[in-house]
Amino acid sequence: MIYPTQHAPDFEAEAYQNGKKVTIRLKDFQNQRVLLFFYASDFTFV
Amino acid sequence: MAAQEETFQKLGVITLAISTDSVYSHKVFAETSPSARTIHYPLLSDRSHSISYQYGVLRAELGIAYRATFIISPNHKVQYASLYPPEVGRNVSEIIRVIQGLIYEETTGLGVPAYWKPGMTGILKDFKFVGKV
Fold this sequence. Notes:
The structure holds two protein chains of two kinds. By secondary structure, chain A is mainly β. Chain A has one domain (1-46). Chain A has strands at 12-17, 20-25, 33-38. Chain A has a two-stranded antiparallel ribbon with strand order 1-2. The two termini of chain A are 20 Å apart. Chain B is α+β, with helices and mostly antiparallel strands. Chain B has a domain at 2-89: Glutaredoxin (3-Layer(aba) Sandwich), CATH 3.40.30. In chain B, a hairpin with a 5-residue loop joins β5 and β6 (78-84). In chain B, 27% of the residues are buried. Classes of the chains: A mainly beta, B alpha+beta. At the A-B interface, β1, β2 and β3 of A face β1, α2, β2, α3 and β4 of B. β3 (33-38) of chain A pairs parallel with β1 (13-19) of chain B.
């Protein structure tokens, strides 16, 4: 697990957003705080 | 998280949700689930499990991720990390409080004590105050 003060590993992923398929890269959000939350599965409670 | 999307926006936070589901599953989920229908933030697909693995939150035997939450600073250091038991949902108001506390510390230089909430004062961090607050 990545702990506080450690570098957040960069990643690239396909994503669904507002009806479209997009590509999301963590590095696209330089100088912005990011909330990254993992959940188990769609259709389950988050 | 969905219900608090606007709160995160106001705090200047980019929200990214991620699971090991495909984007096709994400699409149908976003179109059909009453709570997911309101979401504007992206649902990321970690179909190769590589991101969950890299962040150390993969349950490899099940092919899914733990209910993990990371707050990442503007210079991309992890500031907060948590894992919930699979049986229990998140307390989103605590995540909001942590972000508010981080912003408060950045702008005032004051320490953020236990149970701190916006509107409360912080703590001077100088060594001379140790044992006095």
